[in-house]
Structure formats: C-alpha cells, structure tokens
Amino acid sequence: MKKNIIFTVAVCCATAIAANSTFSQTNxxxxxxxxxxxxxxxxxSKSTKAATPxxxxxxxxxxxxxxxxKNMKTLVVRGAADVSGSPTMTFxxxxxxxxxxxxxRLEISTPFQPxxxxxxxxxxxxxLRDFELPPLNRxxxxxxxxxGDKDFTVSALSExxxxxxxxxxxPEGFYTDFFVDEKTGTVKxxxxxxxxxxxxxxxxxxxxxxxxVEGVKIPERYAQRFETGQLTIYADFKAKEILVNSxxxxxxFR
Length: 254
Prior knowledge:
outer membrane lipoprotein receptor (LolB), chain A; 13-stranded antiparallel beta sheet; mainly beta; single chain
C-alpha cells in the first residue's frame, strides 16, 4: 500500500512538473500569478483554429514563453499537494522537482515514506529498491521544450477526440496529449498513458492557474487524476515557488 501511494504521488509530480524543495543550492526569483490575456491573445485565438498539429504546437510553445520556455536552463518548482483515494482518505504531501537540461531530481515527502529519484545525465538512481519511474523529462510539459528536436514527433490527437490539441511523442515512445485553450493558446489540460513494470498507467491534468516567471508560464494550481486499473487517485497541487534559470549545483543530481 505504501509503495502504491508513493508511486502515485511520484508519477503525479513527474507529469505535472510541480515541486517543493529546501535545496540550499538553488536561488532565484519567483514570479507572480497570471491569468491575464495580453493583446496577442486575439491573434493566438485565430491561429489555434484549423491549425495543423505542428502549427498548434508551435503556437502553444509561444504562448508559454516561446524561446524562453524552450531554452530554459533550469527549473525548480516548490509546492504541496492534497491526495485522496476515496472520500474518507486524504493525506498531505510535499514534493521537489529540479530540472537542468537532461538532468533531474524528484523528492517526495509523505506521512508514510520519503522517496527520491535522480538522473545525473548518465545514470538513474532511486531511493527505493526495485522502484523506478519513467524519465521525468519525457512526460507532460517538459516535452514542449523538445519541439523541433530530432526524433520528437508531433501528431494529431486520436480521431475519437473532439478537443483542440496535439500529441508529442519522445524517441522512447512516451507521449502526452495536450489540449489547448483557444483564447490564450496555453495548455489547459493534458494526459498520458504508458506502461511501467507491466502496469498500465493513465494520468490526466487540468490546469487552473498559470504563473509567469522570467517570461515563462508554468502551472501553479492544477488537479490530477491518476489510474492504474486497480487504483484511482485524485490530487490537488499548488506550487508555492517557481524558479527559472536559477543556479543549480551538480551535486543536486547525485
């Protein structure tokens, strides 16, 4: 049971690119919340209609900060979550994600057991034996940074989907379906489905609020549904601090 809970919160954190940390090696400025539509919103609205998947993906990247988003050197997001598996079972969690290029670090604190996974650019390590998540930079919003990169493909959503959006698939086969707000061009929700150790995992995220930091828009408040077939978990996330391009020491990823 404990591992299932940790697994659930960990994948939620991974796909939602949200975090909480006390890393003394990082420092920077956190931005203010933003839901304002600037004058460019009208042109964005026009460009999201009848666009090809690649055109829509480029418009979405631009709405999240364009080159500033794509060329982020580091990203640290700090926050907390309320996680529930039933109306009577709710528990708090804190979490920390640090990204620097291909390197990343995820830490989770729950009432049950702490968890940490890191990737130093060559090797992945996990604090729990026989417990490892998929690559954190191959799910959710981090995929937008690879738009235009070799072997990262953009395609249409399933024919069954009536939503405005596109899919990005990584070279390893991990994919995320992004659903776009026609007025702002930003991602309003996304979902992923993949297999981990023979277990099929499906997760979906609804973004309630974005925060702009250094010209980059990152989810601040969002809700997530997580399903493994035998277990369904709901989580409400709130990022307390988001740092963009702040210094990160290499030993953070060890």
